[in-house]
Structure formats: structure tokens, C-alpha cells
Amino acid sequence: MGEQSNSNYHHILKYTGIFGSVQVLTILISLVRNKVMAVLLGASGVGFNSLMTTMQNFASQATNLGITFGAIPRLSGYYEQQDKLKIEYSIMVIRLWSVIAAVLGLLFCLMVSSFVDKLSFTWGDHTLHYAMLGLSVAMISITGGETAILKATRHLNALARIQVYTAFVAVVLSLPLYYFLRERGIVPAIVLIAFSTMMVTLWYSYRRYPLRLVFRYSLLTDGADMIRLGLAFVSAAVVGSASEMFIRSFLNVEGGLHIVGLYNVGFMLTITYAGMIFSSLETDYFPRLSAVQKDIHMTNDTVNKQMEVSLLLLAPMLVALLMLLPVLVPMLFSNEFLPVVAMTQVAVLAMYFKVMTMPVSYISLARSRSLAFLFLESSYFVVLIISVVVGYRLWGIFGTGVAIVIAHVSEYVLTNSFAYFQYDYRCTKTIYCYASFQLLIGVTAYVISLICDGWCYWITEAALTVVSTAYSINILRRKTHLWESLKRKFTHS
User: Fold this and answer.
1) Pairwise CA distance, residues 476 & 307, whole Å
2) In angstroms, how far is CA 149 from the centroid of its own chain?
3) Model confidence at 318: pLDDT above 80
4) What percent of the chain clears pLDDT 70, i.e. is strictly above it?
């Protein structure tokens, strides 16, 4: 039993490490693009790009029918059973519905472009820009269907390569457009990036499952369950994208594109950095959780082990990020973005609560509790909007960082309380112990950032990073075969 437990920890650590490493590489590649964008376009250009990408995400989430999530459980089950006929049939269903979603996304952008322009801008006419996003939204829908196929059929190496290749291609395609066209190149770059991502994904997916696109009424009806399951995720994502669009529009009206650019950089540094750990949840964790969702004991075990590993991996990274932000921001962007340091440092604390929330929130999806998932996600965004509006008016851009923390704390309390009463989920005392210790270090590091500077700041923050790292490594060493695996690989080499 103990050997099996260690094996489970090792599996989680392995795939979190794989996709975390891929995420690190893609982030490093993306940082080159962001640095050039910041230098060439300034905070206003970054803010304009943020508005466009937020609209793209909103339109995509509103029209993709939840295929990326809804398609996984059934196809994953067929893959486990090695039922080739049902696998092929399910793939035809997914691809047909992906085409339908692509058409919906294109039409949606064309219809709402004028309205969104009036909502988000007080100058100029950007209707054409929003309409052009329809092309990228359509391509994202096609990509999403193929990505779901690769996830459900466990082609994890292909997914990792796709992330790296598309990040590299995005830099190659976008930088010349930023250089020659400046802000006019932002929307064409978004469209070209979506096209390149789609083509790379199709190349990997079609090699494994050749295209057989068939239009039959039976395929539409057989996809109803998939769409029904995905609608909860879609609805929550729409609420999230609409909330982000509202927040950025509010900041644009209140403070201008410069403030939107600052907020976007702070949000990106915090959420994207933590995403290195969260990237394995959809790819590896969600299929595993779906497989055991009928067994409450197995569900609790799966959730808690995922939470333990994610927390222990993420916590030292958060302390290191908090320490390095005064150097990273001007280095990765420019001195114009220095005001965002204070916002991002306090927002880092929100990630301690996010890592304790996300594994639990997936229980509702695994059990097809669509309304519950929608309620929990919507509640978070309502709190976030209210907190950002109040926080910005009270403390400026720093207040948006405080707002992110408040929203994540409320989400943690609500999600875990709901799971406790509705799903009999029980978080272990061990996790509470780990979280309390790591959060204490994180809060201490933040306080140090407020009261110290110079050598005192760097020495103290570095010491806290070492303590957090040593604590996590010691626990992971005891619970996994990490050291043994490294020794075997070294000996074999």
C-alpha cells in the first residue's frame, strides 16, 4: 500500500515536472516577445494587446461549446478500454462539433464587434480589429477539438512539443509585425499566431488519427452529452472572460491604456508563473480524477495528493518570484512598468490559496455537476470585479493586487466548504500543516519587501527562499522515488 502511495506521488511529480518544464520554456520564449512589445509599443501598446487578447478569449470561451473539456471523459474511457471503433467514432463527433464551434465564433465576433468597440474605447474606431479576431477564434475552436483528442488518448509528449513549437513560432511571426507596423501589427499577429498553433496541432493529431469529417445528424445527437458537459465549463469561462474584459475596460476608462498595460503585466507575471504548476491539471489530473469520481475515498486521495505536490512545488517558486520582481520587471519589460512591482508582490500571496482551490474545484467537473461548477466560478469573478473596482479607486494599481488576493481567499473558502458538504471532501491535516508553514514564509517575505531594502532585503529574502525550498524538497524526497530515479538514470548514463 505504501509502495502504491509513493508511486502515485511519483506519477504526479513526474507529469507536473514535464508540463511545468514545458511551461517554463514557453514562458521564456514568450518573455522575449513581451520584452520587444514593451520596448517597441510601450505600456499603451501592451494595454491595446491586452484588450484584443481578452476579447479573443471571451469570444472563444463563449462559442467553443466546451469541447476541450466535455470531449475528454467519454473518449478517455474508450481509450482505456482500447475500443478502436468507438474511439474513431468519438473523434468524428468531436471534429464535427469543432467545425460548428468555429463557425459560431467567427459569426459572433462579426456581430458584436461594433458594440464591444463602443464599450471598451472612448476614441477611434476599432470595430474592424474586433471583427478580425473572428478568424483567430474560429481557428482556436478547431485547435481545441484536436487538443482534447490528444489529451484523452494520452499523447502527452505531442502536447508538450506543440506548446514549445507554437511559442517559438509566435515570436518569429509577431516581432516583425510589431517592428514594422507597431500597434497596427497587434491584431494581425494574434491571427497569425492562432493559425500557426492550429496547423502544428493538426499536424500532430492527423498523423495519429487521420481526418474523417462526416456530416450526419446522428453525429450531432451523439455529441449532445459532450456539449452538455462542456457547457458548464463554457459558461464559467464566459463569465471569467467577460469579467476580465469588464475589468480591463474599467481600467481603460478610469486610467487609460497605460493602466491596463500595467495591470496586464502584473496579472500575467502572477498567474502565468503559477501556471507552470497548474499546467498538468487539465492534461493529467482531470482524466485521473474523472476515472475515480464515483469513489469518494479515491477522489479524496487523488485530490489531496495532487494538492500536496502542487503546493510543495509552487511555494518556493512564489517566494523566489516575490524576491526577484524588482529586478525582473524592468529587465523583462522596461522601467515604465516599475509601478506594477508593488501590485504583483501582494498578488503573489493569492497563489497560495489558488493551489489549494484548483484541485478541489475539478471535483464538480469530474462529477458533471455543471451548475455547481458554474456557481463557484461565477462567485469568484463577482468578488474579483467588486474588489478591483473598489481597490483601484482606493489605492490605484496596487489596489488591484489586493483585490486579486481577496478574490482568491473567498474562492478558497467557498469552494472547499462546498466540497466538504456536497462531496464529503476532506482535506488532510498534513496539507494544512504544509500550507500553514509555506504561507507563513510567503507572508514574511512580503512583509520584508515592505520594510527592508538593500542588502538586508536580498539576504533575508534569499534565506526565506532557501528555507521554503529545503522544506519542500525534504518532503518530496520522502514521499516519492525522486532520488532513486535520479540515481538510476545517473548510474545508467
Assistant:
1) 13
2) 19
3) yes
4) 88
